[in-house]
Design a protein that fits this description.
- Pfam families: YbeY.
- There is one protein chain.
- This protein is α/β, with parallel strands linked by helices.
- The chain has a single domain, classed as Metalloproteases ("zincins"), catalytic domain (Collagenase (Catalytic Domain)), CATH 3.40.390.
- The protein contains 5 helices and 4 strands.
- A 4-stranded mixed β-sheet has the order 1-2-4-3, sandwiched between helices.
- Strand 3 and strand 4 form a beta hairpin.
- Helix 4 crosses helix 5.
Length: 141
């Protein structure tokens, strides 16, 4: 039942790790999911761009890439790569705090592992609603 946070090719230390872990489990529980083995890898734009090229054949920059490693329904096992560079830029562009954008992206990856998609406008609308709900249950400690 491990949730682990890593940094690759950047210096980044997620504050309040235990609070984030508890929150991630709470978000998963909304749809009766159980977090078995989840890794969040915080990285640079260049690092994530290389993963996008190598594994998805996409020559674009993105804020997040999620790999689902689960073989069982309602069990979350996966790797979520997050570009801290993109999170900072998106926060600035959208005129919101870095911490809020980071929570949105962390929830977004988890929601993908829970089966939420974001290809169509309807899916995007549902994903945004779930991201906002997820952020709203983050403990204010």
């Amino acid at each position: 039942m491990a949730i682990i946070f890593f940094a690759e090719k950047i210096t980044f230390n997620l504050p309040h790790k235990n609070t984030y872990k508890k929150w991630i489990r709470s978000v998963a529980q909304i749809d009766k999911f159980h977090v078995q083995d989840l890794n969040y890898i915080f990285c640079s734009d260049e690092y994530l761009h290389q993963i996008n090229l190598e594994y998805l054949d996409h020559d674009t920059y993105t804020d997040i890439i999620t790999f689902d490693n689960s073989d069982e329904e309602k069990i979350i096992e996966g790797d979520i790569f997050v570009s801290i560079d993109r999170v900072k830029e998106n926060a600035s562009t959208n005129n919101i705090q870095f911490d809020e954008e980071l929570k949105r992206v962390i929830a977004h990856g988890l929601l993908h592992l829970m089966g939420y998609k974001d290809k169509t406008s309807d899916e995007i609308m549902i994903m945004r609603k779930m991201e906002n709900m997820s952020i709203s249950i983050y403990p204010n400690s």
